[in-house]
Design goal:
The complex is a heterodimer of chains A (about 425) and B (about 325). Helix content of chain A is about 45%, strand content about 15%. Chain A is built from 18 helices and 14 strands. The N and C termini of chain A lie far apart (about 60 Å). Chain A is an alpha/beta fold and about 425 residues long. In chain A, the strands form four sheets. In chain A, strands 1, 2, 3, 6, 13 and 14 form a six-stranded mixed β-sheet that branches. Chain A has a four-stranded mixed β-sheet with strand order 8-11-7-12. Chain A has a two-stranded antiparallel ribbon with strand order 4-5. With about 325 residues, chain B is mainly α. Chain B has a single domain, classed as Orthogonal Bundle (MetI-like fold). Chain B is about 70% helix and about 0% strand. Chain B contains 14 helices and two strands. In chain B, β1 and β2 form a beta hairpin. In chain B, α4 runs parallel beside α8, α4 runs antiparallel to α11 and α8 packs antiparallel against α12. Chain B is flat and about 70 Å long. The chains are: A alpha/beta (about 425), B mainly alpha (about 325). At the A-B interface, α1, α4, α17 and α18 of A face β1 of B.
Amino acid sequence: MRRGIAASALVAALAVTMAACGSSGSGSDDKAADGPVTITYWDTSNATNEAPNYEALVKKFEAANPNIKVKFENVPFDQAQNKLQTAMGATGAPDAFRSEVGWTSAFAKAGYLEPLDGTPAMTDKAAFQPSLIQQATYEGKVYGAPIVTDTLGLLYNKELFAKAGITKAPATWDELKTAAAQLKEKAGVDGFFMRAGDGYFAMPYLYGEGTNMVDAKGKKITVNSPEAVKAIETYKSMFTAPGTVKADVTTDSYAHMMDAFNSGKVAAVINGPWEITNIYKGSAFADKKNLGIAAVPAGSTGKAGAPTGGHNVSVYAGADKAHKAAAEKLAGFLTSAESQTFLATKNSTLPTRTDAYTADVKADPGIAGFQAILAAAQPRPELPEYSSLFGSIGTNLGKIVQDQSSTQAGLDATAVDYLKLLPGFSK
Amino acid sequence: MAVAVQGAPTKGSQDPRPGLVARVKLSYSKHWYAYAMVAPVVIVLGVLVGYPLINGFYLTLTDANSLNSARTIGVKEIPATYQFIGLHNYADILWGPGSYDRFWSHFVWTIAWTVICVTLTYSTGLALAMLMNQRLRGRSLYRLMLILPWAVPTFVTIFSWRLMLADGGVVNGLLGSLGLPEPAWLSDPLAQKAAAILVNTWVGVPFMMVSLLGGLQSIPGELYEAAEMDGATAWQQFRHITLPGLRTVSSTVVLLGVIWTFNQFAVIFLLFGNGAPDAQILVTWAYRLGFGQQPRDYAQSATYGVLLLSILIVFTSFYRRWLARNEEASR
């Protein structure tokens, strides 16, 4: 029988067959490796700017592997985790997908992912940055091939900064506040727009005080520690200080922030390299050189830190052998040096392997800017639940910045939620 | 089957009541046809309503979440590892740590939301229905226009409202040009609640209006003529003819309004998404626990569902009793 039908239907049909005939079904899987295989790939990149380039890569892969057809589907990033969770626990899951680094260990823990060690996806394991492989590892096995890495930085409008007489990027939150006031006064624009009520974007404040949401090694919840309270007090002040934009907690706040920045109504934001292509399209950044990229400001410890983000390509554990083999090949192809160079030059995102940083890639001012600050990025602790922690803190940060609860009370509520998510942790 | 009818033992006799088994047999032999006719419906309801309900109730007694439930990963099967924990979920939600923030604040707001919304939709609907019941030119056009919010898909309505209520939207533009304050409808907690009520009223009025209009048209015009002859004022006519005439319709639409508003997921969810912790009502909160977070907490989400159902059952039984008493009194 030909296998040229939609992968999702096949997975579903296979589940039934396997249930019916038990382990004897494995013999027929091997045969399928010769015939054409159609696999599904879920892409989570920005649909207008980034996805076409990913699709072009997938086309190249199909041309190089005539026996493999790839069904390319773009899934909006903010819905992808939920959709993957639903699909992988039932039917209709993609054979390969772009997974945010924070999801990888949680999905691996749930048994959804295929280990990639020794497969075509991991032939050049040594070429990847070790910390990124570390992030994709769960209990000693690698579950994702890093395709893109990122961190948060302070993005600013050089022209507006110059207008306000500011010569260098603010290095601490206090300097940023001073700059914001100056920008409002002299350049007549809002100085700084911070994304409100989002735990991920609040991480630099926690790192700036030398703390984190939890201490994974010491099994302790630190989100309501005195250092964290201090960090969130600073966070809160970034919505009320002169020249800063007041807290926007609507569903469209991210779009509001980027629209204001791209059109030159706001002089500085905190964001990552995934927005660079969008920013270049904005009226304020027709000249790419106008975009300043600096490390996130430091807290009272004098140290600055931002979370390491990015994406891996993972393979679904529930597919049959032929599909898995094809998906592993695709993962290997997408994360090859050549593919990453292609993505970097097209999307201005950061490659995950050193041999992908060609002269062309390094010439992109966005990539160069972020590459310079990547060294200071903080990898996540090894904790499959870590990405689940952002939900509660986001909700409570929203309350804190709207003065509905005090900083301490809001963070205490978060700590109570964490106790439930992290059995065995102490407050 | 006919044999069984003939063998029916106690037919027509004055003997003491037969035992349970005998009674079941008797009723079966007499009414087997009815049972056979009802069986498909009972089975379908059992599968579609009964089983999920019982299963959901069982979930509330466990610590099931997306990490320990049974799941089929393509060709792999992972069995469930969740445990029976008795009534712990109920205790945790009702008086566990942070229960005010997690449950009671939403409970109070859900009740307030329901009362305010139903009052507003009912009174606005009644006012509009009375207007529409007048003999005026272009009446059917007005009726059509007032039905419109109901005819448009809810999500379209709500997304349009979200655009209009945004900071630079039409609503604030209008308020600003009149020199009135411009609340942040979608971010300020109090304004969020006001916005939710406003949108839900807009969505709910057409149903109330149409139902009440139907009720109004069933009141005989002679009653008003007679009242006018006797010199009754408009208020007296409204009080003693219109309201009593609308009683049956009103009791139904208010009951439906309460149940629908109490479970009005779409307005809150589409207007605020996962933000707005204060404007979330119990249903949207249950959704967030079960599907809007990682890991998904199926057990507590189900517990919310059972609590919601119990609240509605208690309300409905009291409401019906109150209606029955009123009916008695008015006779």
